[in-house]
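Complex 386.
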Amino acid sequence: MKIHEYQAKELFKAYNVPVPDGNVAFSVDEAKKTAANLGNFPVVVKAQIHAGGRGKGGGVKLAASMEEVETLAREILGMTLVTHQTGPEGRLVKKLLIEAGQKIKKELYLSLLVDRTTASIVIMASQDGGMDIEEVAAKTPERIIKVYVDPLMGIQGYQLRQVGFALELPSSAMKPFSALLSNLYRFFIANDCSMVEINPLILTLDDKVLALDAKVDFDSNALYRHKDLMALRDLDEEDPLEIEASKYNLNYINLDGNVGNIVNGAGLAMATMDIIKNAGATPANFMDVGGGATSEQVENAFRIILADDKVKAVLINIFGGILRCDIFAQGVVDAAKKTNINIPVVVRMEGTNVEKGKKILSNAGLNLTTAVDLFDAAQKIAAAVN
Ligand code: GDP
Ligand code: MN
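Predicted structure with manganese (II) ion bound:
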Protein backbone atom coordinates (compact mmCIF):
# COMPACT_ATOMS: atom_id res chain seq x y z
CA MET A 1 0.00 0.00 0.00
CA LYS A 2 1.36 3.37 -1.03
CA ILE A 3 0.78 6.60 0.86
CA HIS A 4 1.19 10.28 0.02
CA GLU A 5 4.34 12.28 0.56
CA TYR A 6 2.67 14.42 3.26
CA GLN A 7 1.62 11.30 5.16
CA ALA A 8 5.08 9.75 4.86
CA LYS A 9 6.64 12.94 6.16
CA GLU A 10 4.30 12.99 9.18
CA LEU A 11 5.45 9.45 9.98
CA PHE A 12 9.10 10.40 9.42
CA LYS A 13 8.75 13.22 11.96
CA ALA A 14 7.56 10.75 14.57
CA TYR A 15 10.79 8.78 13.98
CA ASN A 16 13.03 11.85 14.05
CA VAL A 17 13.80 11.74 10.36
CA PRO A 18 14.11 15.47 9.56
CA VAL A 19 11.74 16.94 6.97
CA PRO A 20 10.92 20.56 6.00
CA ASP A 21 8.14 22.32 7.93
CA GLY A 22 4.85 22.15 6.13
CA ASN A 23 1.29 20.96 5.98
CA VAL A 24 -1.24 19.36 3.70
CA ALA A 25 -3.84 21.64 2.04
CA PHE A 26 -7.13 20.62 0.44
CA SER A 27 -8.02 24.09 -0.80
CA VAL A 28 -6.42 27.35 -1.93
CA ASP A 29 -7.39 28.94 1.40
CA GLU A 30 -5.71 26.21 3.39
CA ALA A 31 -2.61 26.54 1.22
CA LYS A 32 -2.46 30.27 2.00
CA LYS A 33 -3.00 29.68 5.72
CA THR A 34 -0.12 27.20 5.87
CA ALA A 35 2.11 29.54 3.87
CA ALA A 36 1.28 32.35 6.31
CA ASN A 37 2.15 30.11 9.26
CA LEU A 38 5.49 29.22 7.69
CA GLY A 39 6.17 32.95 7.63
CA ASN A 40 8.97 32.91 5.06
CA PHE A 41 9.34 32.71 1.32
CA PRO A 42 9.96 30.85 -0.89
CA VAL A 43 7.29 28.31 -0.13
CA VAL A 44 7.03 25.08 -2.12
CA VAL A 45 3.67 24.03 -3.55
CA LYS A 46 3.62 20.27 -4.19
CA ALA A 47 0.93 18.16 -5.83
CA GLN A 48 0.09 15.07 -3.76
CA ILE A 49 -0.46 12.01 -5.93
CA HIS A 50 0.84 8.46 -5.64
CA ALA A 51 3.33 8.86 -8.47
CA GLY A 52 6.80 10.26 -8.86
CA GLY A 53 8.17 12.66 -11.46
CA ARG A 54 5.86 15.44 -10.29
CA GLY A 55 8.58 18.08 -10.58
CA LYS A 56 9.10 17.48 -14.30
CA GLY A 57 5.34 17.33 -14.88
CA GLY A 58 4.76 20.77 -13.34
CA GLY A 59 3.44 19.55 -9.98
CA VAL A 60 6.19 21.02 -7.76
CA LYS A 61 6.73 24.78 -7.80
CA LEU A 62 8.34 27.49 -5.73
CA ALA A 63 6.31 30.53 -4.68
CA ALA A 64 8.13 33.73 -3.81
CA SER A 65 5.10 35.55 -2.38
CA MET A 66 1.59 34.97 -1.03
CA GLU A 67 0.16 35.97 -4.44
CA GLU A 68 2.25 33.24 -6.05
CA VAL A 69 1.12 30.69 -3.46
CA GLU A 70 -2.45 31.54 -4.42
CA THR A 71 -1.80 31.36 -8.18
CA LEU A 72 0.14 28.11 -7.95
CA ALA A 73 -2.31 26.46 -5.56
CA ARG A 74 -5.16 27.39 -7.93
CA GLU A 75 -3.21 26.05 -10.88
CA ILE A 76 -2.08 22.74 -9.35
CA LEU A 77 -5.21 21.83 -7.35
CA GLY A 78 -7.57 20.18 -9.78
CA MET A 79 -5.02 19.75 -12.53
CA THR A 80 -4.55 16.39 -14.21
CA LEU A 81 -0.89 15.79 -13.59
CA VAL A 82 0.88 13.65 -16.15
CA THR A 83 4.26 12.18 -15.19
CA HIS A 84 6.27 9.23 -16.49
CA GLN A 85 4.72 7.18 -13.68
CA THR A 86 1.04 8.09 -14.13
CA GLY A 87 0.61 6.93 -17.71
CA PRO A 88 -0.81 9.25 -20.37
CA GLU A 89 -4.17 9.59 -18.58
CA GLY A 90 -2.51 11.37 -15.64
CA ARG A 91 -3.85 11.78 -12.13
CA LEU A 92 -6.24 14.39 -10.74
CA VAL A 93 -4.61 16.47 -7.99
CA LYS A 94 -6.86 16.80 -4.94
CA LYS A 95 -4.38 17.90 -2.30
CA LEU A 96 -1.20 19.88 -1.93
CA LEU A 97 1.73 19.88 0.42
CA ILE A 98 2.80 23.41 1.33
CA GLU A 99 6.37 23.48 2.59
CA ALA A 100 9.11 25.85 3.66
CA GLY A 101 11.50 26.25 0.71
CA GLN A 102 14.99 24.89 1.32
CA LYS A 103 18.35 26.19 0.19
CA ILE A 104 19.89 23.20 -1.51
CA LYS A 105 23.62 22.55 -1.75
CA LYS A 106 23.36 18.97 -2.99
CA GLU A 107 20.59 16.55 -3.96
CA LEU A 108 21.26 12.96 -2.87
CA TYR A 109 19.42 9.67 -3.21
CA LEU A 110 18.59 7.28 -0.37
CA SER A 111 16.30 4.28 -0.29
CA LEU A 112 15.61 1.10 1.65
CA LEU A 113 14.15 -1.96 -0.02
CA VAL A 114 13.45 -5.58 0.77
CA ASP A 115 15.95 -7.60 -1.26
CA ARG A 116 14.56 -11.08 -1.79
CA THR A 117 17.70 -12.55 -3.35
CA THR A 118 19.85 -11.90 -0.29
CA ALA A 119 16.94 -12.01 2.22
CA SER A 120 18.08 -8.67 3.55
CA ILE A 121 17.23 -5.01 3.54
CA VAL A 122 19.26 -3.17 0.99
CA ILE A 123 20.18 0.47 1.45
CA MET A 124 20.80 2.23 -1.84
CA ALA A 125 22.44 5.62 -1.91
CA SER A 126 23.85 7.92 -4.52
CA GLN A 127 25.29 11.40 -4.87
CA ASP A 128 23.21 11.74 -8.04
CA GLY A 129 19.87 12.37 -6.38
CA GLY A 130 17.00 14.48 -7.60
CA MET A 131 17.02 13.08 -11.11
CA ASP A 132 15.85 9.81 -12.53
CA ILE A 133 17.55 7.14 -10.43
CA GLU A 134 16.68 4.51 -13.05
CA GLU A 135 18.82 6.45 -15.50
CA VAL A 136 21.71 6.59 -13.03
CA ALA A 137 21.35 2.83 -12.49
CA ALA A 138 21.38 2.19 -16.25
CA LYS A 139 24.19 4.53 -17.29
CA THR A 140 26.45 4.91 -14.25
CA PRO A 141 25.64 2.05 -11.87
CA GLU A 142 28.95 2.63 -10.05
CA ARG A 143 27.42 5.90 -8.78
CA ILE A 144 24.95 3.92 -6.61
CA ILE A 145 26.18 2.09 -3.56
CA LYS A 146 24.33 -0.80 -1.98
CA VAL A 147 24.69 -1.88 1.62
CA TYR A 148 22.92 -5.06 2.74
CA VAL A 149 21.52 -5.19 6.25
CA ASP A 150 20.82 -8.55 7.86
CA PRO A 151 17.36 -8.08 9.42
CA LEU A 152 18.31 -10.32 12.38
CA MET A 153 21.41 -8.24 13.16
CA GLY A 154 19.84 -4.87 12.47
CA ILE A 155 21.70 -1.94 11.00
CA GLN A 156 25.28 -1.56 12.29
CA GLY A 157 27.25 1.59 13.02
CA TYR A 158 29.83 0.83 10.36
CA GLN A 159 27.08 0.50 7.76
CA LEU A 160 25.70 3.94 8.63
CA ARG A 161 29.17 5.39 8.20
CA GLN A 162 29.76 3.45 4.99
CA VAL A 163 26.71 5.13 3.42
CA GLY A 164 27.62 8.56 4.83
CA PHE A 165 31.16 8.33 3.42
CA ALA A 166 29.90 7.16 0.03
CA LEU A 167 27.71 10.27 -0.11
CA GLU A 168 30.83 12.36 0.65
CA LEU A 169 29.01 14.32 3.31
CA PRO A 170 30.87 17.08 5.14
CA SER A 171 32.11 15.86 8.52
CA SER A 172 29.62 17.99 10.47
CA ALA A 173 26.75 16.23 8.67
CA MET A 174 28.00 12.67 9.36
CA LYS A 175 26.42 12.26 12.80
CA PRO A 176 23.06 13.78 11.85
CA PHE A 177 23.03 11.58 8.74
CA SER A 178 23.80 8.43 10.75
CA ALA A 179 20.92 9.27 13.08
CA LEU A 180 18.63 9.90 10.11
CA LEU A 181 19.47 6.59 8.45
CA SER A 182 19.26 4.61 11.65
CA ASN A 183 15.84 6.17 12.40
CA LEU A 184 14.70 5.49 8.86
CA TYR A 185 15.69 1.84 9.25
CA ARG A 186 13.76 1.67 12.55
CA PHE A 187 10.73 3.16 10.76
CA PHE A 188 11.08 0.65 7.91
CA ILE A 189 11.12 -2.38 10.23
CA ALA A 190 8.49 -1.19 12.71
CA ASN A 191 5.96 -0.54 9.94
CA ASP A 192 6.67 -3.54 7.69
CA CYS A 193 7.65 -1.37 4.74
CA SER A 194 8.58 -2.87 1.40
CA MET A 195 10.15 0.36 0.19
CA VAL A 196 11.16 3.76 1.49
CA GLU A 197 12.68 6.21 -0.99
CA ILE A 198 13.98 9.70 -0.37
CA ASN A 199 14.78 11.40 -3.65
CA PRO A 200 16.18 13.88 -3.03
CA LEU A 201 17.69 13.72 0.39
CA ILE A 202 19.28 17.14 0.55
CA LEU A 203 22.31 18.75 2.04
CA THR A 204 21.35 22.36 2.74
CA LEU A 205 23.65 25.37 2.35
CA ASP A 206 24.23 25.23 6.11
CA ASP A 207 25.10 21.50 5.89
CA LYS A 208 21.90 20.02 7.33
CA VAL A 209 20.49 16.80 5.91
CA LEU A 210 16.77 16.37 5.40
CA ALA A 211 14.21 14.44 3.41
CA LEU A 212 12.86 16.73 0.69
CA ASP A 213 10.73 13.99 -0.83
CA ALA A 214 9.30 10.81 0.69
CA LYS A 215 7.88 7.70 -0.93
CA VAL A 216 6.72 4.83 1.24
CA ASP A 217 5.23 1.49 0.29
CA PHE A 218 3.97 -0.90 2.97
CA ASP A 219 3.79 -4.67 2.64
CA SER A 220 0.03 -5.14 2.26
CA ASN A 221 0.24 -8.63 3.76
CA ALA A 222 1.39 -7.12 7.04
CA LEU A 223 -1.18 -4.32 7.21
CA TYR A 224 -3.48 -6.33 9.46
CA ARG A 225 -1.11 -5.55 12.30
CA HIS A 226 -0.99 -1.81 11.55
CA LYS A 227 -4.57 -0.60 11.83
CA ASP A 228 -3.34 3.00 12.15
CA LEU A 229 -1.58 2.77 8.79
CA MET A 230 -4.63 1.32 7.07
CA ALA A 231 -6.37 4.64 7.74
CA LEU A 232 -3.83 6.28 5.42
CA ARG A 233 -5.09 4.37 2.39
CA ASP A 234 -6.36 6.72 -0.34
CA LEU A 235 -8.83 4.93 -2.60
CA ASP A 236 -8.78 7.89 -5.03
CA GLU A 237 -5.27 6.83 -5.98
CA GLU A 238 -6.14 3.22 -6.69
CA ASP A 239 -7.49 1.54 -9.78
CA PRO A 240 -11.29 1.15 -9.34
CA LEU A 241 -11.17 -2.37 -10.79
CA GLU A 242 -8.38 -3.35 -8.41
CA ILE A 243 -10.46 -2.08 -5.48
CA GLU A 244 -13.44 -4.06 -6.76
CA ALA A 245 -11.29 -7.21 -7.12
CA SER A 246 -9.89 -6.88 -3.61
CA LYS A 247 -13.46 -7.16 -2.25
CA TYR A 248 -13.60 -10.72 -3.56
CA ASN A 249 -10.08 -11.72 -2.55
CA LEU A 250 -9.02 -11.74 -6.17
CA ASN A 251 -5.39 -10.94 -6.74
CA TYR A 252 -5.76 -8.53 -9.65
CA ILE A 253 -3.38 -6.03 -11.20
CA ASN A 254 -4.27 -3.90 -14.19
CA LEU A 255 -1.64 -3.80 -17.00
CA ASP A 256 -1.48 -2.14 -20.45
CA GLY A 257 -1.99 -5.03 -22.92
CA ASN A 258 -5.18 -6.46 -24.39
CA VAL A 259 -5.37 -10.10 -23.26
CA GLY A 260 -7.36 -10.62 -20.07
CA ASN A 261 -6.10 -13.53 -17.98
CA ILE A 262 -7.91 -15.70 -15.49
CA VAL A 263 -5.42 -17.96 -13.80
CA ASN A 264 -5.22 -19.85 -10.51
CA GLY A 265 -2.02 -19.25 -8.60
CA ALA A 266 0.44 -16.36 -8.83
CA GLY A 267 3.25 -18.50 -10.26
CA LEU A 268 1.02 -19.80 -13.02
CA ALA A 269 -0.15 -16.23 -13.69
CA MET A 270 3.46 -15.08 -14.15
CA ALA A 271 4.20 -18.01 -16.45
CA THR A 272 1.03 -17.28 -18.43
CA MET A 273 2.01 -13.65 -18.94
CA ASP A 274 5.46 -14.74 -20.13
CA ILE A 275 4.17 -17.29 -22.57
CA ILE A 276 1.55 -15.04 -24.17
CA LYS A 277 4.16 -12.33 -24.51
CA ASN A 278 6.36 -14.89 -26.23
CA ALA A 279 3.53 -15.69 -28.60
CA GLY A 280 3.25 -12.00 -29.52
CA ALA A 281 0.38 -10.83 -27.30
CA THR A 282 0.46 -8.63 -24.20
CA PRO A 283 -1.42 -9.14 -20.91
CA ALA A 284 -4.13 -6.62 -19.96
CA ASN A 285 -4.04 -7.79 -16.39
CA PHE A 286 -2.81 -10.25 -13.86
CA MET A 287 -5.80 -12.04 -12.36
CA ASP A 288 -5.16 -14.79 -9.87
CA VAL A 289 -8.36 -16.40 -8.60
CA GLY A 290 -6.36 -18.37 -6.04
CA GLY A 291 -5.85 -22.02 -5.36
CA GLY A 292 -9.34 -22.68 -4.02
CA ALA A 293 -11.51 -20.33 -6.06
CA THR A 294 -15.28 -20.67 -5.81
CA SER A 295 -17.54 -20.36 -8.83
CA GLU A 296 -18.72 -17.02 -7.44
CA GLN A 297 -15.14 -15.76 -7.48
CA VAL A 298 -14.71 -16.92 -11.06
CA GLU A 299 -17.86 -15.04 -11.97
CA ASN A 300 -16.56 -11.86 -10.35
CA ALA A 301 -13.19 -12.30 -12.03
CA PHE A 302 -14.93 -12.47 -15.40
CA ARG A 303 -17.09 -9.46 -14.70
CA ILE A 304 -14.09 -7.35 -13.63
CA ILE A 305 -11.99 -8.33 -16.63
CA LEU A 306 -14.81 -7.61 -19.07
CA ALA A 307 -15.34 -4.18 -17.50
CA ASP A 308 -11.92 -3.24 -18.82
CA ASP A 309 -12.28 -1.78 -22.35
CA LYS A 310 -8.72 -2.68 -23.30
CA VAL A 311 -9.48 -6.41 -23.13
CA LYS A 312 -9.93 -7.87 -26.62
CA ALA A 313 -9.77 -11.56 -25.66
CA VAL A 314 -9.64 -13.64 -22.49
CA LEU A 315 -7.33 -16.52 -21.73
CA ILE A 316 -8.38 -18.89 -19.00
CA ASN A 317 -5.53 -21.00 -17.73
CA ILE A 318 -6.36 -23.35 -14.90
CA PHE A 319 -4.42 -26.07 -13.21
CA GLY A 320 -6.90 -27.85 -11.00
CA GLY A 321 -5.22 -28.94 -7.80
CA ILE A 322 -7.29 -27.88 -4.83
CA LEU A 323 -9.53 -26.03 -7.23
CA ARG A 324 -11.45 -28.68 -9.16
CA CYS A 325 -11.88 -28.16 -12.89
CA ASP A 326 -15.62 -28.98 -12.78
CA ILE A 327 -16.25 -26.28 -10.15
CA PHE A 328 -14.24 -23.85 -12.19
CA ALA A 329 -16.03 -24.74 -15.42
CA GLN A 330 -19.39 -24.21 -13.73
CA GLY A 331 -18.17 -20.78 -12.63
CA VAL A 332 -17.24 -19.95 -16.20
CA VAL A 333 -20.63 -21.10 -17.50
CA ASP A 334 -22.53 -19.11 -14.85
CA ALA A 335 -20.44 -16.04 -15.52
CA ALA A 336 -20.89 -16.36 -19.28
CA LYS A 337 -24.65 -16.57 -18.89
CA LYS A 338 -24.81 -13.46 -16.70
CA THR A 339 -22.30 -11.35 -18.54
CA ASN A 340 -22.62 -10.86 -22.22
CA ILE A 341 -19.27 -12.14 -23.50
CA ASN A 342 -18.70 -10.86 -27.01
CA ILE A 343 -14.96 -11.36 -27.30
CA PRO A 344 -12.94 -14.54 -27.94
CA VAL A 345 -12.27 -16.76 -24.93
CA VAL A 346 -9.58 -19.45 -24.97
CA VAL A 347 -9.56 -22.09 -22.24
CA ARG A 348 -6.72 -24.32 -21.15
CA MET A 349 -7.56 -26.58 -18.25
CA GLU A 350 -5.64 -29.44 -16.61
CA GLY A 351 -5.78 -31.35 -13.37
CA THR A 352 -8.41 -32.63 -10.95
CA ASN A 353 -11.72 -33.55 -12.63
CA VAL A 354 -10.58 -32.11 -15.94
CA GLU A 355 -12.79 -34.43 -18.03
CA LYS A 356 -15.86 -33.45 -16.02
CA GLY A 357 -14.90 -29.80 -16.42
CA LYS A 358 -14.46 -30.07 -20.17
CA LYS A 359 -17.84 -31.76 -20.49
CA ILE A 360 -19.52 -28.92 -18.59
CA LEU A 361 -17.92 -26.38 -20.91
CA SER A 362 -18.74 -28.19 -24.14
CA ASN A 363 -22.34 -28.89 -23.08
CA ALA A 364 -22.97 -25.26 -22.21
CA GLY A 365 -23.01 -24.22 -25.86
CA LEU A 366 -20.71 -21.28 -25.24
CA ASN A 367 -18.46 -19.81 -27.85
CA LEU A 368 -15.18 -20.97 -26.29
CA THR A 369 -11.97 -22.14 -27.91
CA THR A 370 -10.26 -24.94 -26.05
CA ALA A 371 -6.52 -25.47 -26.09
CA VAL A 372 -4.63 -28.72 -25.60
CA ASP A 373 -1.79 -27.14 -23.65
CA LEU A 374 -0.40 -23.78 -22.57
CA PHE A 375 1.65 -23.33 -25.74
CA ASP A 376 -1.40 -23.98 -27.89
CA ALA A 377 -3.44 -21.58 -25.72
CA ALA A 378 -0.86 -18.82 -26.17
CA GLN A 379 -0.83 -19.28 -29.96
CA LYS A 380 -4.61 -19.19 -30.11
CA ILE A 381 -4.94 -16.10 -27.93
CA ALA A 382 -2.27 -14.26 -29.94
CA ALA A 383 -4.10 -15.14 -33.16
CA ALA A 384 -7.33 -13.83 -31.64
CA VAL A 385 -5.95 -10.38 -30.81
CA ASN A 386 -3.49 -9.82 -33.65
P1 GDP B 1 9.15 14.47 -7.65
O1 GDP B 1 9.50 15.20 -8.91
O2 GDP B 1 7.77 13.90 -7.69
O3 GDP B 1 10.17 13.44 -7.30
O4 GDP B 1 9.11 15.59 -6.49
P2 GDP B 1 10.26 16.10 -5.47
O5 GDP B 1 9.65 16.27 -4.16
O6 GDP B 1 11.45 15.22 -5.52
O7 GDP B 1 10.63 17.53 -6.06
C1 GDP B 1 11.21 17.69 -7.33
C2 GDP B 1 12.32 18.71 -7.31
O8 GDP B 1 11.84 19.97 -6.90
C3 GDP B 1 13.45 18.38 -6.35
O9 GDP B 1 14.38 17.47 -6.89
C4 GDP B 1 14.05 19.76 -6.14
O10 GDP B 1 15.00 20.04 -7.15
C5 GDP B 1 12.87 20.70 -6.30
N1 GDP B 1 12.46 21.20 -4.95
C6 GDP B 1 11.57 20.63 -4.12
N2 GDP B 1 11.51 21.31 -2.95
C7 GDP B 1 12.40 22.32 -3.05
C8 GDP B 1 12.83 23.37 -2.16
O11 GDP B 1 12.39 23.50 -1.02
N3 GDP B 1 13.78 24.23 -2.63
C9 GDP B 1 14.31 24.11 -3.88
N4 GDP B 1 15.23 24.99 -4.27
N5 GDP B 1 13.94 23.14 -4.73
C10 GDP B 1 13.02 22.25 -4.33
MN1 MN C 1 11.45 13.08 -5.82
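The radius of gyration is 25 Å.
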